[in-house]
Design a protein that fits this description.
Length: 328
């Protein structure tokens, strides 16, 4: 039998679920030069995952943990509230594994997200925002309305609630995957990590993984200006354009017992500008929260972490924001 030169190449994977790992880590040297800062930003490109966001990892982690624990029965319906990213990840995982999935989402989130989830086979239930709310600016009050509907549907259908705010499969996916990947890909040459928090799963998982390997790595929670409840600040601007987080939720479960070395606030305007700069200068087409993370890293390099190396996750794709003012 004749052997080809590529016989030892990677074989076909069993499904797209096997691609939900090992995203690239890249230097943002063009951006740091443009902003005149000393130091290095390493961007973890989780927007390249199949659902175009880091939430693919959490979705897979939550479902597989539930299966292992016997909490999810064959053919049972799965329900979760989402800004669109966790829902997309769950739609993919449920499609592969044969579960019906119902995504419950605020109408304030960009419509691209609902369309993508429906294309992936999900049932999408949209919940009206609070009176006077602005589309594209989803507040904690809006999320509370979504939570009420998600609870009702879960009870009515006898569904499994894939609760990203409570189930440990969320942060564990980042503890076992994202965090170790960042550390290994950086060669351990890492001084800091920043993360814009929604459920807190990425921050908790990555921070615990990094500090287990090097306790001196400083980890920072990133929140929107005017909605920095975790930093102990009054919430004066709960509606902001950074979708997927900054909901000003008290007592986030995953942050309990997770070390925090500092808190950084980023305005919606700054997040928007850095997201645009990432596209124009680095060819990275990310979303608002990735821009907020990189903005936080730039802020640190301009101040007490000059000359250091900081990692940040590019959480989702700019394709999910084409209808918003991010690209107009």
């Amino acid at each position: 039998m004749q052997h080809r030169a590529d016989d030892n190449a990677q074989q076909p994977l069993a499904s797209v679920l096997d691609t939900m790992q090992q995203t690239p880590l890249v230097r943002l040297d063009r951006l740091t030069r443009a902003y005149g800062v000393s130091g290095t930003i390493l961007a973890k490109l989780d927007y390249l995952l199949p659902g175009f966001s880091k939430k693919d990892r959490a979705a897979k982690g939550v479902i597989e943990a539930a299966e292992a624990a016997g909490q999810l029965a064959p053919n049972q319906t799965v329900v979760e509230l989402t800004s669109g990213n966790m829902g997309t990840g769950l739609a993919i995982v449920c499609a592969i594994k044969g579960y019906k999935f119902v995504a419950v989402m605020s109408q304030g989130n960009s419509p691209e997200r609902a369309r993508m989830m429906r294309a992936l086979g999900a049932e999408v239930v949209l919940v009206a925002q609070c009176a006077g709310a602005v589309a594209g600016q989803v507040s904690g009050a809006d999320l509370a309305l979504v939570e009420d509907v998600a609870q009702k549907i879960t009870a009515e259908r006898g569904a499994f609630r894939a609760d990203q705010f409570k189930l440990e499969g969320n942060w564990r996916a980042h503890f076992d995957g994202t965090g170790p990947e960042i550390y290994l890909q950086s060669g351990g040459e890492l001084d800091g990590f920043v993360d814009f928090i929604g459920s807190g799963g990425t921050y908790a998982g990555v921070t615990r993984a990094l500090k287990q390997r090097d306790p001196d790595i400083r980890c920072f929670v990133v929140e929107p200006e005017g909605a920095a409840l975790q930093a102990g600040q009054p919430v004066t601007h709960p509606a902001h354009p950074i979708q997927g987080g900054g909901y000003s939720i008290k007592n986030l479960q995953f942050l309990i017992d997770t070390p925090v070395d500092g808190y950084i606030q980023i305005s919606g305007q700054t997040a928007r500008q850095i997201t645009r700069d990432l596209a124009a200068k680095e060819g990275i087409f990310g979303g608002f929260s990735g821009g907020a993370n990189v903005a936080a890293a730039l802020q640190l390099l301009q101040n007490d972490m000059r000359g250091k190396t900081i990692a940040a996750v590019i959480c989702d794709s700019g394709l999910k924001y084409l209808s918003t003012d991010l690209w107009t």
